Amino acid sequence: MNMKVFAAELVGTLTLVLFGCGAAVLAGEFVGQLGIAFAFGLAIVAMAYGIGSISGCHVNPAVSFGVFIAGRMTGKMMLTYWLAQFVGATIGAAILFLIASGKAGYDIDVNGLGQNGWGAGYLGEYSLLAALVFEVVATFLFVVVILGSTHAAAPTAMAGLSIGLTLTAIHILGIQVTGVSVNPARSFGPALFVGGHAIEQLWLFLIAPLVGAGLAGMKARIGFLEKDAA
Per-residue pLDDT for 42 more than 90? Predict the structure, then answer.
């Protein structure tokens, strides 16, 4: 196991959960949906330049899966990324819970921890089908941008910005639908602490992002994300 890569992905995913979910839990009433969307996007921008040279800053099992399907990493390395990402998300959620519970009146059953979901009682109360379609399509588009932005022919110095802004746009669109996952680890960490309904619905946020990322990886693998040779 490459410990530098493991540490980078752990810290990166921890940061994404702490900043993104933290903005929703600790500051949502002040910054609103747009502020939460930018918190997720800016966390990715920051980590892209902070750990990108070490691990590529996947901080998302779906991204690593898409990269694997595209033929840009081995299955063994993907599993290292996955382990680091799930551990990092869990630690990030634990830190957020410790901070949030320091406020008088905070109740995880009422205030949550930025967990994902759908249906009655959850944000916009969208249906299961709507949640499934959104997560598959949004992850597909997100990974298309990532694979395109990090391609050898792309101006990779701007990759972190393009990827972060794409995640911001996805959150602006989809927070009311599912809270936006597009990342199984990001969903796993908060759900582990919230339990109950969040755990019951976790399956969608583990499977749908992998489906979307796999489709994006296949497009890259067969050359649809590469320009024709001159």
Answer: yes
Token pair belonging to 42: 């800016």
With bands split at pLDDT 50, 70 and 90, how would you rate the model's confidence at 66? very high
Q: If you ran DSSP here, which 8-state letter would residue 209 be given?
A: H
Q: How far apart are CA 191 and CA 175, in angstroms?
A: 16
H helical segments located in 74-149: 75-100, 108-111, 128-149
SS3 187: helix
What's the start-to-end Cα distance of the chain, in Å?
40
Nearest residue to 202 (alpha-carbon basis) of 111, 86, 118: 118
Rg (CA), the chain: 17
Residue type, 163: I
CA dihedral 6, 168, 95, 200 (to 10 degrees): -90
Q: Domain 3-221 carries which CATH code?
A: 1.20.1080.10
DSSP conformational letter for 157: G
- Amino acid found at 112: G
pLDDT band per the 50, 70, 90 thresholds, residue 228: low
